[in-house]
Amino acid sequence: MLKDDEVIEKLDEKFEIIQKVGGYKYGEDTILLFKLFQATLNKKNIKLLDIGTGNGILPILLSDSEFLSELVGIDIQKENIERANKALK
């Protein structure tokens, strides 16, 4: 369930993300990092830790990668983690 200050935004035809209306939003650098990972991941069972995951956009985008065996996002702000966890369910 969304809070009053949250919106769901479509990333592409496959993924949506929950964003805070007046707060942090992901930037182009995250999309570029995702594209770099997509192009260079080439071995199985990679474990990835996203430190400062924010709303979880990078783990969400990488969630269907066949190369990742474990994907963890952490953030210092509790509301970011709550928002990221809602998006993954």
Task: Kindly describe this structure.
The protein is an alpha+beta fold. Helices cover 34% and strands 26% of the residues. The protein has 3 helices and 4 strands, in the order ββαβαβα. It has helices spanning 28-40, 57-62, 78-88; strands at residues 6-10, 16-20, 46-51, 68-74. The strands form 2 sheets. A two-stranded antiparallel sheet has the order 1-2. A hairpin with a 5-residue loop joins strand 1 and strand 2. The mean pLDDT is 87.
Largest sheet: 2 strands, antiparallel
- For the secondary structure, the number of strands is 4
Q: How are strands sequenced across the largest beta sheet?
A: 1-2
Task: Report the C-alpha radius of gyration, rounded.
Answer: 13 Å
Level of helix content?
25-40%
Q: Give the N-to-C terminal Cα separation.
A: 11 Å
The chain-level mean pLDDT equals 87
The structure class reads: alpha+beta
Low-confidence stretches: none
